[in-house]
C-alpha cells in the first residue's frame, strides 16, 4: 500500500484552461472533507473544484459541476491505478474559453492528478493492528515483561487513572495470549492504524 509523504501541488494548461492539482495526505473522510472545504474557500473564484479521495474509512469523488463522470471518477481511477491510499486530490479548473468535450475533460483531469503524483514523495505503508493494553500502575512490570516476551512495539504510553500502552502487533495471537493470561489485570482494546514502514 502506498501514500504520499506531504502535500503537493502541480499545474497544467489545456487549451487555455488552467488545472491546478493539490494532493494531501489524509486518513479519514472527515479530514478529506475539511481539506476540500479549505481548498474551495481558497479557490472560490475557480470554475470548478473537483475532488477524489481514498482514505481508511471509505472513498469518494465529486465532479463539482463538470459533466457527470468527466472529473471526479477519472481522478479516483488515477489514485487507484497508482495504488494510493490515505490521499485526497483536488483539481481546481479555471475555464479558458475553449470547451474540451467529455474525452478532453477526462484526459485533462487524469493528467492533472498524474502530474501531481509524479511530483509527490511516495511512501510504502503497511497496515498493522494497534492495541491498547490497559492496566493498574502496580502491573507495569508485568505488562513490560509481556511486551518484551511477545516482541511488541510500544508506540505510545499514557499515565492517567490507569496505565495505557499502545502496542503494534502483526499477530493477534500474541495479544490474545496476554488477554487470556491476565484477563482482568490487563485489558485489551483494538483499533486499526497505519504505521509507516521505511
TrEMBL record:
Give me the Gene Ontology terms describing cellular component: cytoplasm
InterPro entries listed in its UniProt record = Impact, Impact_N, Impact_N_sf, Impact_YigZ-like, Ribosomal_Su5_D2-typ_SF, UPF0029_Impact_CS
The organism's superkingdom is given as Archaea
**GO terms, biological process:** regulation of translational initiation
**Residue ranges constituting the Impact N-terminal domain according to the UniProt record:** 15-117
The record, for Pfam families, names:
Impact_N
Membrane spanning residue stretches: none
Q: Report the family membership.
A: Belongs to the IMPACT family.
Can you name this protein?
Impact N-terminal domain-containing protein
Q: Which organism is it from?
A: Methanobrevibacter millerae
